[in-house]
Amino acid sequence: MTNRVNAPGQWDDVQVGDTVLLTRNGHTEYAGAVDTRTTDGETVWVRTPVGGRRLFHVSDGFELTWSQP
Question: Which end of the chain, C or N, has fewer beta carbons within 10 A?
Answer without folding.
Answer: N
